Amino acid sequence: MTELSYEATKRELVTDQGVLRYHEAGDGPPLLLLHGSGPGVTGWRNYRGVLGDFAEHFRCLILEFPGFGVSDPGDGHPMMMAVPAVTRFLDGLGLDSVNVIGNSMGGIVAANVAIAQPDRVRKLVSVGGIGRNVLAPSPGEGIKLLTEFTDNPTREGLIRWLHSMVYDPAVVTEQLIEERWELATEPQTLEIARRMYSSKAFAATQAAGKASNVTPYWAQLHKITAPTLLTWGRDDRVSPVDMAMLPMRDLPNGELHVFPNCGHWTMIEAKDAWVAAVLAFLRREEK
């Protein structure tokens, strides 16, 4: 496996909506990696542990979404800025179509792109998050803790949230806590996070969704023509695994792989098994 550093892989793309920052490594078919949300998240932190594995087979592009403290911030809701950022990014690099891996929020963004622009997504891999709660309460425990931290950002609150993300508490190291705390409490990044996950913003989003005539993405999954692999931790307390029931019914070319003893960060907690399953899927010739 190739060892790749933060400095050696970081890149910038200037757009009409500010600078998009990303990491690039490897050669081959393009593979776009989209990160999730939450305190102190970055694309690099989500995927640094698996970048070398994928870079042996693909031209890997880890995009940093606006509003999370790495790319230029933007002035909108982080989720609403993310989908056009993907289009702007692909256009800026001259890429017509790519394989996509999306973690949590990144999976939802990828699904929205695949629905609106089906020719741009060759294959899609999600890491938790695509779908809708069927049996478990909504929002999940991890989302509630995320809202609590966003309203009142304390170190103890961050640690509680981090533990909700994983099955094995040993994953939550002091290094992880400190690097997440530093970015999560940076004033501008925290202000933007509150547009999405403060209790006030979350309630407003829920109310707007109920009042809107717009069809939610999870009700349009049948429009995704790309072969899709859903990967899920069996013990996910953020996006419970029963969320997979809806996409498994509706995705025309969907399949599901559930990893035991694993929480929301499947690519971290079940790294070796997850990489093997995803590489097999991405490299498989479709009939």
TrEMBL record:
What keywords tag this UniProt record? Answer: Hydrolase
> For the AB hydrolase-1 domain, which residue ranges apply?
29-270
Provide a GO CC annotation, any one: membrane
Q: Which GO terms describe its molecular function?
A: hydrolase activity
Which superkingdom does the taxonomy of this entry point to? Bacteria
InterPro entries hit by this protein: AB_hydrolase_1 (IPR000073), AB_hydrolase_fold (IPR029058), AB_hydrolase_sf (IPR050266), Epox_hydrolase-like (IPR000639)
Q: What is this protein called?
A: Alpha/beta fold hydrolase
Q: What is the lineage of its organism?
A: Bacteria, Bacillati, Actinomycetota, Actinomycetes, Mycobacteriales
